[in-house]
Amino acid sequence: MSKTSEIITCKAAICWGIGKPVTVEEIQVDPPKATEVRVKMLCASICSTDISSTKGFPHTNFPIALGHEGVGIIESVGDQVTNLKEGDVVIPTYIGECQECENCVSEKTNLCMTYPVRWTGLMPDNTSRMSIRGERIYHIFSCATWSEYMVSDANYVLKVDPTIDRAHASFISCGFSTGFGAAWKEAKVESGSTVAVFGLGAVGLGAVIGSKMQGASRIIGIDTNENKRAKGEAFGITDFINPGDSNKSASELVKELSGGMGADYSFECTGVSTLLSESLEATKIGTGKAIVIGVGIEITLPLGLFAILLGRTLKGSVFGGLRAISDLSILADKGHKKVMYPLDI
C-alpha cells in the first residue's frame, strides 16, 4: 500500500466547543486527494486567531483542530500535484494566488478569487481529511498546524528552502508577515513618515520592521504591556506609549508625540474593538491612513463618525496585502538569509 492511500493516526490539539479547553487527542488524518498534500509538521507557532477560533471566529463549527502557523515537510502528494513532491519543506498559507484571476492580474489586492480565504474550516470541496472517533474535525482556514500531520490543498502551501530556520519559517506563515506586509504592500509607508502601531505582538512588530524598512522616521508603539517597550525598541520603535499610564486616550498621546498633527499611518494589530476609532483618530486629518489587521471575535465594530468624516482613510487587510506566492516567497528568502532590510524590492 502506498503512503498516499494510508490513514495516519496522530496527535492534535482539539477544541470541542466555545469556552471548552483545548485537549491533545489522537485523531485520524486521511490521505490527500488529487490536488492536495499531506504534511508532517515540524514546527508550529501560536497566533491570536487560534485563540479566537476557540471562541467561535471565524466559524462556530466544532470540534476544531487548531493552528494555522507552521512549517512542515510533505509526506505524500495527490496524483494531480505537479509543483510539489514528497520531502519538500513548506509553510501553509490561508490565501492562494492563481496569478490568472481578475484580482491576481490587477495586483491591486492579494485576495485571489480562485483560491480565496477558507472561512468554513473545510477543504475546497467542503469536506475534511481529519476525524476523531468517526466524527469530522474542522480546522482554521486552510490547515491545522497543531497536528502532527495535516492535509492542505496544494494551492495553499508555499515551498521554502529546506535549510530555513524553522522558527522563522513558522512565524512568516502568518503573524509577522501580516504586519510586515501591511506596512510594505498595504499602506506603502513613505520615507520620512510617522507611524503608530497599536499592539506590539508578532503582527505589530512585523509592522514596526516593515515601516522601518520603508523609511519611516518615527515609529510609535502602543501597548498596555510595559514589557513590550524593550522588545519594540529592539525592533525599531522610536517612542513607546502605555495608555494605562495616562488618563488621555491613545490617539491623544500619539498626537502629542507628533506635534499635535497625528501619524501619517497607523496599524491596528490587536483586534480590540474600541481601538478601531482610536487608530484612525491617531492619524492626520485629511491624509491619515489606518490599516486594520487585528482580528477579535466581534463581527460588528464601533466607528466614530468624525474619525473618518475628516478625510482619513480606513482600510482592512488580510495577510497584510501579501500575495501568497509573489510576495511571501521574497520574505521567506530574506528570512532564510537573515536579511530583512533593506529588502531590495
TrEMBL record:
Q: What superkingdom does the record give?
A: Eukaryota
GO MF, one term, reads: zinc ion binding
Q: Which UniProt keywords apply?
A: Metal-binding, NAD, Oxidoreductase, Zinc
Cofactors: Zn(2+)
InterPro entries documented for this protein? ADH-like_C, ADH-like_N, ADH_Zn_CS, GroES-like_sf, NAD(P)-bd_dom_sf
Asked if the record carries the keyword Oxidoreductase, the reply is yes
**Location of the Alcohol dehydrogenase-like C-terminal domain:** 202-323
Q: How does it assemble?
A: Homodimer.
The molecule here is called Enoyl reductase (ER) domain-containing protein
What organism does the record attribute this protein to? Answer: Glycine max (Soybean)
Write the lineage as a comma-separated list. Eukaryota, Viridiplantae, Streptophyta, Embryophyta, Tracheophyta
